[in-house]
Each structure stands twice: as structure tokens, then as C-alpha cells.
């Protein structure tokens, strides 16, 4: 059987141990450093017997046993196992290992409570809310309000994250306007060598607009519940899965109540090639994440202006969500979950204003003791 070293490996020292990680497959194992020498023998397709001959000073049976272990961990792949490994090499080649390791090793992380964090904060281990330079000279800024659009200012300060929604159906024109203003094109530009480029109402590095929106409809007037893809050019919803339910969306979002109650949930994905075809350094991965943040903020402000309550979360079941969307998680990968609905009117979504006790517990500047 021919084997080859997986494309998606990183090696490092941690706590005195030599660690090999397959960031696509998720395996992470502490091994003897010689494992790196064994893996180096499999840059090209090679049989175990051929590789063993490269280590004449070591026991052949021990080498075979070690190679079988490396294969079992996914550090070596056979020709029958190469598909996902090859896809990653194709779509993430110019960004790996730096961006690939971060993205794939942080997928499918458990969404758990961390009581020790609350204990640390109760014990006074709180980072400062603000940064200052006590010795620096200062200019006190004018407090007179600027003559800006009052509606925009109200929207800006009214924005907050909502987690409780009315069960009322969302009017279709409201959903249509939300999708158009956030995800639709605002105009098209001549990108010269890059052809026609789309602009949105959000900033996007190089106008690559690699982000796609999949819309889970639970309660919208005139729209059959299900999972849709938002077709940006047509301004249409393409039905992908009529069996996709509110309960399914909630499960994929780690059973968060906001998604359970929202009439609309939007799953953001990135088509990696749109970004990596132009920006071929791993740093472009940061830009892709920034773009998701830009769209999410525009979504939140637009929803607020439309009288809706926005919600956003990075807590979702990556691989299950990508399976549900019908994307492979490599060429197109899930990044963010957004939702919106009519805010609940029963006070369930209220947030207490900070009082004197809260400020006593806070560290305002570095060096303050809460």
C-alpha cells in the first residue's frame, strides 16, 4: 500500500513533549521526535517497506509498528484516504499552515459553561475596562453634539443583542429589505483585471465578497419554512431543504434560546477561493474574519432600524452545520450565525443597568483594584 504524509500537519513542543497535530482530522499526539523523521520519508507516495530501508540503524519491525501508528493517527494517508487532504491542499495551499491550522483546529469546539471563569472574576481577577496613559498630556474634546442624522444616531444607540423574540410572523417585505440592504449589491465597479466587482453596504477587502448567506426561515409571512440560500444577484431565496426546522437550527447553534425563538436565522459561510485567489498570504484569513464582522454589524444595525432585534453567535456545531448546508467545510466553510425577529414585549430580554455596586466591582484602568 502506498502512503503519503498528510498535507495538514504541524509539529511543536508543548510542556517538554513533541506534539504532532493533524488539524484537519483533529488528532493531536505526543510522540518521540523520531516520528518527524519517519514522516519525512513520505513526502512522495511510498510503501512501508521502502521507508523502512531508509532507517538501517533501527529495528525494521519497530519501524513498521511506528508507521502503522502514524497511519492510524491520520498523519499518513493512503490513496483511498486522500480526498479531503487533497481538497485542503488545493483550497488552502497559500494560507497554510498558519491560517489552516487556526481555522480547522478550532472547529467543532464544545460549547460549555466555564464556572471557573466566574469564580476568577468574583475573586477580583478582572481585566481593566479601559486603557489610559496617566503621564500623557491631554486635550479635552468638545461635548457639543454634531449635526448628524437623528435616525442614524437613534439606531446606533438602540442596537443591542436580543435573545427573546415574539412568536409573530415576520412580514416578508421586512425580511426582503434586511437581506437586500445587508447582503445585496449596492453597486458594481470596474475591477479591470478582476472584471466587474460588487459593492455591498459593508466594507470587504478587495471587494472579494466571499461571504454567502443561508437563511433558515421559521416564521415569515408567505414563505414556506425551510432552509434557503440567498441568491445575491437575483435577490431571491433558493429552497435547499424544506425539511429544515426551527429545532434543527437551534440544535446546530448549541440549543441557544435566541435561535429557538427567532423567525429567521442566517448562517454565514465563506467561499475561500474568492479571497485566496487574490490575497495569497495567510494574513488574508484575518481579513475574511473581519469581513464577517463587518456584515454582522451591518446586519445588526439594519435589523435595529427595521424595528427588529438582532442576535449573533460564534457558537455552532461546525461540521454538522456544514453538512446541513451542503458545503464541504474546506472550499466553503461556516463562519458565523445571525438571527433577527420582533423583540419580545414581555420584558424577558431586559438587561440591568450598571449601578454603584457594579462599578465598585469593576477595574476601570490597569492597576485599579476592583
Automatic annotation (TrEMBL):
It holds the Pfam family Nitroreductase. InterPro entries: Bacteriocin_Proc_Enz, Nitroreductase, Nitroreductase-like, SagB-type_dehydrogenase. Signal peptide: none annotated. GO terms for molecular function: oxidoreductase activity. SUPFAM superfamilies: FMN-dependent nitroreductase-like. This is Nitroreductase family protein. It comes from Streptomyces lavendulae subsp. lavendulae.
Amino acid at each position: 500500500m502506498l502512503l503519503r504524509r498528510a498535507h495538514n500537519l504541524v509539529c511543536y513542543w508543548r510542556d517538554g513533549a513533541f506534539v504532532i497535530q493533524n488539524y484537519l482530522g483533529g488528532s493531536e499526539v505526543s510522540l518521540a521526535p523520531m516520528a518527524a523523521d519517519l514522516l519525512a520519508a513520505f513526502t512522495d507516495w511510498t510503501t512501508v517497506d521502502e521507508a523502512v530501508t531508509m532507517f538501517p540503524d533501527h529495528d525494521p519491525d519497530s519501524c513498521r509498528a511506528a508507521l502503522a501508528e502514524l497511519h492510524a493517527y491520520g498523519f499518513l494517508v493512503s490513496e483511498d484516504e486522500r480526498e479531503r487532504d487533497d481538497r485542503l491542499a488545493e483550497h488552502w495551499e497559500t494560507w497554510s499552515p498558519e491560517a489552516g491550522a487556526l481555522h480547522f483546529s478550532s472547529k467543532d469546539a464544545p460549547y460549555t459553561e466555564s464556572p471557573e471563569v466566574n469564580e476568577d472574576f468574583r475573586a477580583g481577577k478582572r481585566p481593566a475596562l479601559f486603557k489610559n496613559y496617566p503621564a500623557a498630556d491631554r486635550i479635552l474634546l468638545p461635548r457639543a453634539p454634531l449635526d448628524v442624522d437623528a435616525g442614524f444616531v437613534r439606531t446606533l444607540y438602540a442596537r443591542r443583542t436580543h435573545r427573546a423574540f415574539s412568536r409573530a410572523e415576520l412580514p416578508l417585505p421586512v425580511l426582503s429589505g434586511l437581506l437586500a440592504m445587508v447582503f445585496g449589491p449596492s453597486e458594481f465597479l470596474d475591477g479591470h483585471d478582476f472584471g466587474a466587482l460588487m459593492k455591498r453596504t459593508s466594507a470587504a477587502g478587495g471587494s472579494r465578497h466571499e461571504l454567502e448567506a443561508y437563511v433558515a426561515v421559521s416564521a415569515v409571512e408567505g414563505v414556506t419554512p425551510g432552509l434557503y440560500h440567498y441568491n445575491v444577484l437575483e435577490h431571491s431565496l433558493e429552497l435547499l431543504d424544506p425539511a429544515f426546522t426551527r429545532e434543527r437550527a437551534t440544535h446546530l447553534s448549541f440549543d441557544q434560546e435566541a435561535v429557538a425563538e427567532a423567525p429567521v436565522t442566517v448562517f454565514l459561510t465563506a467561499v475561500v477561493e474568492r479571497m485566496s485567489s487574490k490575497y495569497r498570504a495567510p494574513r488574508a484569513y484575518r481579513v475574511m474574519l473581519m469581513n464577517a464582522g463587518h456584515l454582522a454589524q451591518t446586519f445588526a444595525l439594519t435589523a435595529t432600524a427595521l424595528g427588529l432585534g438582532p442576535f449573533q453567535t460564534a457558537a455552532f456545531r461546525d461540521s454538522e452545520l456544514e453538512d446541513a448546508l451542503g458545503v464541504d467545510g474546506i472550499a466553503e466553510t461556516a463562519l458565523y450565525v445571525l438571527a433577527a425577529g420582533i423583540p419580545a414585549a414581555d420584558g424577558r430580554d431586559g438587561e440591568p443597568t450598571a449601578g454603584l455596586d457594579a462599578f465598585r466591582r469593576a477595574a476601570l484602568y490597569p492597576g485599579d483594584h476592583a
